[in-house]
Amino acid sequence: MVDSEINPVKSPFDIDVAMQQLREAVRPFPRAAMFELAEQGYQSPFEQLIACIISIRTYDEVSLPVSRQLFERARTPAEMVQLTPAEIDHLIQASTYHETKATQIWQIADRIMREHEGVLPCQVEVLRSFAGVGPKCAHLTLGIGCGQPYISVDVHVHRVTNRWSYVQTRTPEKRWWH
After folding, report:
1. I need a labelling partner for 122 at 20 to 30 A (CA). Which of 8, 51, 108, 170 fits?
2. Could you write out the DSSP letters of every residue in 79-137?
3. How confident is the model at residue 178 (pLDDT cuts 50, 70, 90)?
4. If you compute the radius of gyration of the chain from its CA atoms, what whole number of angstroms results?
5. Distance between CA atoms of 22 and 16, rounded to whole angstroms?
6. Which whole-number Å values give the CA distances from 43 to 17, 68, 85, 161, in the listed order?
7. Helix, strand, or coil here: 161?
8. What count of other Cβ atoms lies within 10 Å of the Cβ of residue 122?
9. 43-151: CATH topology
10. End-to-end CA distance of the chain
């Protein structure tokens, strides 16, 4: 056996090659829920934030119709506060942890009405100040709903890019920013 068969020479990591391979690998699959919703017209920062909260620990196949069902009743903070947390819960009950999410959604809409004149600011600090909103939902909202140069990175993406040696950090928050 030749030494090169035991220890093959590794090519240096090339992000452009990796991204092209990823695009090809995911081409046959449906678009991610947040992008699909934006394409369907649910692209305001508020809609994107609320849909992301619904999507937490919930499959996209559930998140999409549940988000649409909620948005049929309320698409803005002003409309959302007209619902009760119990009504929101009923509309999103197919999502995981729907009781907690219903209360969070109502409280977010209420704060936007009271503190921001009904308009969700496209600011990471504001988004992260809401209960239940972490870096993933904040960055998705900023990237998709606000058109800002943010990417959303969860622990899984963090682990993969560390394995590729593309980044070397202990947590996603230490490396990923806009």
Report:
1. 170
2. HHTTS-HHHHHHHHTTSTTHHHHHHHHHHHHHHHHHHHTT-----HHHHHTSTT--HHH
3. very low
4. 19
5. 10
6. 30, 12, 23, 28
7. helix
8. 15
9. Endonuclease III; domain 1 (1.10.340)
10. 48
Domain parsing of the chain, residue ranges: 43-151
Q: For residues 156 and 88, which has the higher predicted lDDT (pLDDT)?
A: 88
CA distance 69 to 88: 10
Would you state the pLDDT for residue 159?
76
User: For the whole model, what pTM was predicted?
Assistant: 0.82
Helix (H, G, I), strand (E, B) or coil at 51: helix
Q: Which two tokens stand for residue 117?
A: 């004149």
Measured from the Cβ of residue 46, the count of other Cβ atoms closer than 10 Å reads 24
